[in-house]
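Morning - zinc ion inputs below, output right after.
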Amino acid sequence: MWVLCGSFPFSLLRAVCSILLSDSVTFQQIETYTSKNKGYQAELDVVTYRQNRNEIEDNSKFRILLSFGQHARELITTELALKILSILSGEQSLPKRNPVLLNRTLQNTVIKVVPIENLNGRRKVEAGELCERRNGLASFRRGVDLNRNWSVDWGKKEEDFRPDEENPGTGPFSEPESQMMRKLSTSFEPHLWVNVHSGMEALFMPYDHKNTTPKGVQSGKMKLILETLNHLHCGDRCVVGSGGGYLAHGTTTDYMFDIAKIPMAFTFEIYGDEKADINDCFKMFNPVDHPTFNRVLDEWSAAFFTMFEMGAHQMNFLQESPFNVGNLISIDDYLNGYLMERKSRYGEKKELLDLGLQEIRTYFRLFLLSSVLLLFMFCSRITKTNRSLVSSVSL
Ligand SMILES: [Zn+2]
């Protein structure tokens, strides 16, 4: 076991450290980065999970980068980061999971977790500013939305633009937090990126700045992961697709996909209380009772590990599909797995997984339509035959 623990200002990160120091941990590391801009300093703590003993081996592994707490008031996201780290350390376990498959996935995977991307914003929330989502210390009043400070379509403002919420900064990457995250993505070169938020239940893929999803096979694979997570872990309640019903410019995920070329780039929204009073930010973005708190963490941590397995399989780091019969959780999942494991009718090794659920649905609709048409033709023919029989009878 090799653990580096800095002097963390938050009890939360000390908690991470104590998880990592527990005997059951395989191999984890915490690093703290700092960056300054015009007297404004920000820190970024990054926890790395890997089973190999050196960074050189990372190059041949499936690499995952996860960020939580980019918006300060969305505290539940950091709780999820802790839960995932706790499971990775062996301190907590995942129910209904094939341990062999999970272990095989994790052996070939390196995961970097940023539990609180917006540490200075979090300080403001903990000091009582419960509606704060931007960065900045009180003395510096920066107030930039870190999810609008990236370079893809930066600075464009929609009609409903709210400067108090969505300030994009003085230019792309004006904020130290964004600079550090960009550096991390460049040096680590992940295959999978997730930006975790709260405010609603959603599984988003690019693009945020336009109303479309990317074209091609890779986009189909991303969609399939999201549809599967929605079905298995979100009770089909999650909004799936691009954006959130509104356009956002200069977002992290659009950059990670378009510029950093991360093949799987997502934004997850893990909880929201849409009935909460607009002034009650804590309730809008975070569960306020224990059962809901636990449900959110249980469902979403399970979703993340399913995504790790699916992603590793799709990127060819894991031979077995998580949907093999032996690994299935329920009969419903069995049907999904059955569809995904079948070879295409052209006999190629391409799985239906590659076709995407959307295409499967389209085929099913076409099949239904043609059945109805055939039935209609059949019925009309019978009617005609009967009519001709009747007319041939002399009156
Ligand atoms: Zn957010």
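Note: Confidence is low (pLDDT under 50) at residues 1-9, 325-331, 337-355, 385-395.

O.
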